[in-house]
User: Fold this.
Amino acid sequence: MLKALKEWDKFYVKHSSNKGTYNEINAIHEAAMKPMIDLTTSNLNFHRLENMMKAKMEVPAFRFDALEFEFCKSMTDICDILKTYGTLDMSYDITQMITSLKIESWKDTIPFAFYLHPMQKLITEVRNSLLKMEKDGPGRIKYIIEQNTELEA
Assistant:
């Protein structure tokens, strides 16, 4: 058994070293996944800041605005990819969606609540999925969120 493990380790080290991998293919994979990694990172940073605000910690407005902007930009980039190469066929304006949820007392205004409540629910689900993907690591991230379950333990 020990001999088999040593042999496997020898092949693994050879495979994982720069001499045994295809740098060109690795560069393509990294470039392809960069927008998704950026989105999970910006979502995590934005989530942490929101938690600080919920805990009544002092948060500078410029920091909130910067992290919200990064999240919206990263999410828009992913939506652009899904629209170009995937099946996304709806229009989207992530910044406008997030801004709409800042309307005061929208939950008490029936027309606003009719449209914004489902949108808030879906944004929350997506952001929670992004947090889970970030926690599970980049090896378990896929562009189609529903397909992230096949590698889970």
DSSP finds five helices and no strands in the chain. The two ends are 25 Å apart (CA to CA).
